[in-house]
Structure formats: structure tokens, C-alpha cells
Write a structure and sequence with these properties.
13 strands, three-stranded antiparallel beta sheet, about 350 residues, five-stranded mixed beta sheet, Immunoglobulin-like, alpha+beta, 2 domains, 6 helices
Length: about 350
């Protein structure tokens, strides 16, 4: 038997098994215009803003028979009649104001493994999903989220299914319901094809629009604070590596105290604002707060706002103290090092990423 449910096609053999073909939208639009075009971006079906399971029950063992979950997010299908020209295939999502919400490329590369890899089998770990450039039909799924906030380390929820990509936490905030634009870029010239995409609220959820806006505002504020903390942590790590290398050189005894003091300052700021750099670091606390704020469709609590205000001030205070040290202490230290022919301490610029909402 065959049955159509929404945009899915179901095929069943009585008493044996059944299959579901998720989202047959391309088949419904596969006319002469699509088949005759060199590149064709199908109009995506509305995407429902669903939250994944946060059940902390023990996951199914990998050997337990189970099906594959349907695509979690907006399904973006495009047809390539021939091998695309040199250059990446890109998928970009923009909000109603034209702000870039997410950018994906066929050239995306997985992040380097952390210094301490998670004690988890590979089949449970997240997989890098990127646009493909195959001749024929290509499918990409956007998870309806902003990018994950920058962090030195990500955690993994027990709410997982083996082989289906465990979600790394913290995740980026979910987008608001509304109309977005999908932009498909092909090759170096970035010839662009666009389609509107409607994101709909989960029909089981009854929450005021203002609550979702407040949730996204706080989520993006946390995102930007994490980006600032991450940039600071990178700067501190670079300086600590350099000062420790200099400590092994033959230096004037009078130079060693300011060098050690500068290293101690970097260590103390790393502990105060660090993510993986120390217990109670603001980066780790911000990551935990982001996960809590994003755990349900609701307005953030007053407690969450107060916690964020405190954490943001801790990060801002660490940045101010570091910038003061770079203005006052570092030039004097580098002058001492230069007189002895030692290399100067180079500090990477604090250039944190940022993201903004549709306002």
C-alpha cells in the first residue's frame, strides 16, 4: 500500500515492514522548468520549529534495531544538471532584514579535535553536514538554529541516537517563526538562486511571540558574551605560551619578575573568564546558561537574566583588565626583552565574532 501523509510518502508491505520517504517536495515540483535548468533550487516546504528530545533516559544500544529520525529542520533540495564550476556550493540563510543567520559551504571543514577527546565512541559523535555538489538531486538540512557559540569545549547530551549525530552543546539559539530567505551559491562566481522559507511554530506549543523574542535576545546576548570570552581566552593562551618559552631563555635577572608577573596575570584572568581553563570559569558557566535558556519555548526567568548579567560583567572586567595590561605592562616588558635581544611578546588582537537577531 502507498499513502501520502503531508509531504511524506509511506509504503507498506502487510505484516512485514514499512518505509517512509521524507519530504517529497522535489517530486511535486519536478516539471520542465526544473529539468531544463542547469541549476534548480526547489521551493522548500514550511519547516516546523521543533525542539529535539532532551530525555535523559539511557539511549538505545547501537545494536538495538531502530529507524532513522526524519530530517530535523528545513529541508533544502537543489538539482545540478552537470558538474558545477570550480568553487564551493554554498547555502546561506537570511532573515527578513537581510542579516545572515547561517552560512554553509561544501568547503567547510571539521573543527580540529580537542586536546582531550571525549570518551565516546565515534558513532555517537556529531557529523559535519555540508552542502553537496553531486550531479542530480542534492539535499541539505538546516537545523533552524544560529551557529553554535564559540567555545573551547563542547559537551554531549545523553539524549542521543547512535549513528544519527549526537548534538554538541551548547547549541545556537533557535530562530523565530517567520519568513527567511534561502540563497544557493554555485561556484566561484557565486551565481545565486533564492527561495523564501517559512518557519512555523510547533503546533503543540502555545507561547506569546514576545516571550520567544525575549528568549532569542538573551540567547544571542549569551552567544556574543561567549564569543568575547573565547577571543580573550585565545589571547591569554598565546601570551602564556610565549612567556613560558621566554622563561627558559638566559635573561637579565631584573627581567624575570615582570615576566613572571605578566604570566601570573594571564593565568588569573584565564581562570576567571576561561571556558575549559579553570573551575568556575565564566565561559563554562555561560555555556551552561545557554543550554538552560534554550531548553524550552518560554520567556527567560529573572534568575537567568541575573546570572547572565553577573557573567557578562565578569567577562567584561577581565577584558578591561587585560587591555589595561596590554597598554601599560606589555610595552615595558617588551622594551626590557628587546634590550636583551629576546623576542617581544606578541598579542593576538581581540576580535570576537558577533551575531545579531532580526531587529
Amino acid at each position: 500500500d502507498l499513502a501520502v501523509h503531508g509531504r511524506d510518502l509511506i509504503a507498506a508491505t502487510h505484516g512485514r515492514s514499512f518505509w517512509v520517504l521524507d519530504d517529497v517536495t522535489p517530486l511535486r515540483q519536478l516539471g520542465d522548468s526544473a529539468l531544463g535548468a542547469r541549476v534548480y533550487l526547489f521551493a522548500p516546504a514550511p519547516a516546523v520549529r521543533l525542539r529535539r528530545s532532551v530525555s535523559n533516559d539511557t539511549p538505545l544500544p547501537p545494536e538495538e534495531p531502530h529507524g532513522t529520525n526524519p530530517p530535523a529542520g528545513a529541508v533544502i533540495d537543489y538539482l545540478l544538471r552537470a558538474t558545477p564550476p570550480p568553487g564551493p556550493v554554498t547555502v546561506e540563510i537570511r532573515d527578513a532584514r537581510g542579516n545572515v543567520v547561517r552560512h554553509f559551504s561544501s568547503d567547510d571543514r571539521a573543527a580540529p579535535p580537542p586536546p582531550e577527546p571525549p570518551q565516546i565512541a565515534d558513532e555517537w559523535l556529531p557529523r559535519l553536514e555540508r552542502p553537496t555538489r553531486h550531479v542530480g538531486l542534492n539535499r541539505f538540512v538546516w537545523d533552524l538554529r544560529y551557529p553554535p557559540p564559540p567555545a573551547a569545549r563542547y559537551g554531549y547530551s545523553i539524549a542521543a541516537v547512535a549513528g544519527q549525530g549526537t548534538v554538541a552543546e551548547p547549541e545556537g539559539p533557535l530562530v523565530l517563526p517567520g519568513v527567511y530567505e534561502v540563497r544557493l551559491g554555485i561556484g566561484e562566481g557565486e551565481q545565486t538562486y533564492t527561495r523564501p522559507l517559512r518557519v512555523e511554530l510547533d503546533p503543540r506549543v502555545h507561547v506569546a511571540d514576545t516571550a520567544l523574542v525575549a528568549q532569542l535576545r538573551l540567547g544571542l546576548d549569551i552567544w556574543n558574551a561567549m564569543a568575547e570570552q573565547h577571543a580573550l581566552e585565545g589571547s591569554l593562551r598565546s601570551v602564556r605560551d610565549q612567556t613560558r618559552a621566554l622563561a627558559g631563555r638566559s635573561l637579565d635577572p631584573a627581567t624575570r619578575p615582570p615576566l613572571a608577573a605578566f604570566e601570573r596575570l594571564a593565568d588569573s584572568l584565564a581562570r576567571a573568564a576561561g571556558g575549559a581553563g579553570g573551575a568556575g570559569g565564566a565561559g563554562g558557566d555561560l555555556a551552561g546558561l545557554e543550554t538552560v535558556v534554550e531548553s524550552a519555548d518560554r520567556e527567560p526567568t529573572g534568575q537567568a537574566r541575573l546570572v547572565f548579567a553577573g557573567l557578562r560583567e565578569r567577562v567584561a572586567g577581565a577584558v578591561r583588565r587585560w587591555q589595561q595590561a596590554l597598554t601599560v605592562d606589555l610595552p615595558a616588558l617588551n622594551a626590557r626583552l628587546g634590550r636583551q635581544g629576546a623576542p617581544a611578546v606578541q598579542v593576538p588582537a581581540l576580535s570576537p565574532k558577533s551575531t545579531r537577531g532580526p531587529w
